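Re: [ENG-882] Designed sequences occasionally contain unexpected residues at chain ends

Forwarding the minimal case from QA. Structure tokens:
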């Protein structure tokens, strides 16, 4: 999958080191991104993700550098409902890459996976991510107070297939 600036591709073994380095970022940890204790842990996770069509590494088209990841995950709600998670390496933030990746994975989710709802849960202090979701036609649904493990609030967003279809015309 591609956007103007990015390639969203299946995970490869060489992604373990940049994934590990990205997960050392305190901002991402504060925002709830799972982190790994070693490159070996990352490699084990990548071996699992290689078989998941909704989980992609985000790569810069120009220099083939690792930019982050994006995932459509089945949260065992019901068929047609998935949740999105994404993270971007610090030096690539605030350049529109998350927005490009989210828009592309929404397209994939609704067209290729035939989803009816894609939801996102974001820490209330993560204003950058809420801006991305709002740019991508997500609707704010509500706040779960002190819901995160660190007792911060979680904001719930979602986009319905019919809303997404209207947004791409």
């Amino acid at each position: 999958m591609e956007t103007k600036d990015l390639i969203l591709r299946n995970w490869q073994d060489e992604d373990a080191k940049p994934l590990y380095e990205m997960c050392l970022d305190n901002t991402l940890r504060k925002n709830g991104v799972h982190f790994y204790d070693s490159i070996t842990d990352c490699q084990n996770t990548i071996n699992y993700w290689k078989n998941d069509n909704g989980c992609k590494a985000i790569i810069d088209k120009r220099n083939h550098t690792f930019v982050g990841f994006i995932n459509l995950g089945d949260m065992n709600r019901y068929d047609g409902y998935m949740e999105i998670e994404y993270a971007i390496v610090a030096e690539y933030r605030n350049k529109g890459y998350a927005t490009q990746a989210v828009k592309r994975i929404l397209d994939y989710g609704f067209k290729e996976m035939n989803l009816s709802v894609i939801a996102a849960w974001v820490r209330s202090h993560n204003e950058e991510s809420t801006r991305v979701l709002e740019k991508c036609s997500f609707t704010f649904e509500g706040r779960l107070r002190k819901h995160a493990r660190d007792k911060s609030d979680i904001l719930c967003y979602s986009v319905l297939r019919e809303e997404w279809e209207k947004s791409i015309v």
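QA comment: On inspection the terminal residues look reasonable. Residues 18 and 162 are 37 Å apart (CA to CA). Proposing we downgrade this to a documentation issue.
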